[in-house]
Amino acid sequence: MTPGARVQAAIECIDLIADAARDSGAAADTIIARYFAARRYAGSKDRRAVRDLIYDVVRSIGDRPASGRGALIGHARANAPQLLALFGGIGHTPAALVHNEISSATNPAPGWLVEKLERRFGADTPRQVAALLGRAPLDLRVNTLQTTRDAVHIEGAEPTRFAANGLRTTLPLAVETTPQFLAGEIEIQDEGSQIAAAVCGAEPGMTVVDLCAGAGGKTLALVAAMQNEGRLIATDTDRGRLDRMGPRLDRAGVSIVERRLLNPGAEREKLTDLREAADLVVIDAPCSGTGTWRRNPEARWRLTPARLDRLNEAQARLLDLGSTLVKSGGVLVYIVCSLLPEEGEAQIAAWLRRNAAFKSVMFSNPTGGEAVNSLVLTPGDHGCDGFYIARLTRV
Prior knowledge:
8-stranded mixed β-sheet; 4-stranded antiparallel β-sheet; 2 domains; 38% helix
């Protein structure tokens, strides 16, 4: 592909990504993979160059653009003017620029979202948002059911700063082809997720409910902490996500997980046997994903005030549901990969007002310092994805 053809390919992909963001469609990575699956003539260098350009543009355009062309022109005018010379309409290059052609404005995020982040970070907002839009490293979690971190040797990988079983590399690594991955010794997992799993305090012999288990990232970390002893019920309303968990459990050598598909809006029906029976309930709730912008910068294009309201309602409903499963003296851990206060502190404060049977409890801060009853992780301060984590107990 010529440089101009790469720009045109990026424009076409950004159009698809923007449409998917509007319509709750596939993630950017999936769209890019599908695009090139239909264009086998593009070599690995072409695919890498186009992908990098796409993400550069998405990171620099905070509002969902009207067109991929406008987004790329806006990015080029602000950050890479040399790209403008590739618009010429010759061959597979983008059509020539029109005088005063309208383009997307560069900004970190929609104004209403920045205002919400300012409530979290105050004067530190520019630094924190810049970190949120940086490139994420590759984090791995060592599966202690199979090995130890000291025994795993991957070129360029170093121990993570806070997660006891984490490794981090900034080098390209096809993880799923490595012998360590195939042997079930490692999983891809951001250090923030590993810290969140550690805060849960899962122990051997417990009955644990992972209420929003998805494809099982935190489930696997919880089982490792339990040393594969006890009972873990992994639930979700998405059959596809639960199905994807199966091979991961097998590869990791896990035998104590029961996968349970719930009916959306009628989850209680499938959980009646677990009422006030769990030592630990983990709610990794659906959220805005503001903490994951390093990996999914197009998430800024997906979020609207109305969608945020719906997420807040879902979080409150899951907290109410999860609380019914915790036994006396048991623990509920609430996790969101969000940095918006209304999905974190405000959500927990409102829930505690209507759930007098629970109270916040202090826990050792995995990042150091004094004990806390909730923890905020940020890329700017901790080098991992952004999270809010709270730990509560039934009195």
